[in-house]
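Researcher: We're teaching a course module on how sequence relates to structure. For the next exercise, students receive a sequence and then see the predicted structure as tokens, so they can try to spot secondary structure elements on their own. Here is the exercise chain.
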Amino acid sequence: MSLQTDLHNAVTQVNDDSALLHTVVHGGVLETVTTEGGVVVTVAKLLNDADARINLAAQGIFAQSQSAAQDALASAELASSEADRAQSAASQGITDTNAVLELVQTSGNQILVDAEAVLQQVVARLLAVGLPDTLTGARGMLLKVKTDESGYELVNTAALPRFYGFHLSSDGSELLLTEGRDADFNAQDFLAWTLAEGVSFSIHDNALEVQL
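Model: And here is the predicted structure for the students to work with:
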């Protein structure tokens, strides 16, 4: 080859490469350029594809964020609903409790009133039949209809006689009397003893007398 031919070929190659480069730089968003090294995309297509990928990824992230936000909102609404329901249940519980307390208080007051009325009736009936109004000092005594049949009176009964026991003093100079109704007595501790009711004892001419 001559120098002229080589120069011509070089210029032709530069023109061809320049045309390809121009197409790569200024080509449309859908164009590709075939080169000796393979198919390449134009700058516009490269940028458009990158923008599409970015937008797609952003849309995915946005969709996920939106879905998460909706889930969070739904959870918040559910929590708020449960809180309202719990507050309503608590308020109803307080109302029911107060109602029960008022009912118990009312019933208790009525029971006290009824008990007082019954007590007054019992007292009135006891007084009407002439029963004693006190039992102090009446241990072991029985109720007996009065002679005029106007009521009752407390009397001792032979069914519960008194114990009378005699023993000498420690120096043997005195005769001592021990009596009682409810105490525990050991007959072997006494020289003489008896069970009776309404009797008294005295010493007359060095002799023990019993008065009925």
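Model: If you want an answer key for the exercise: The first helix runs from residue 3 to 26. The chain has two helices and nine strands.
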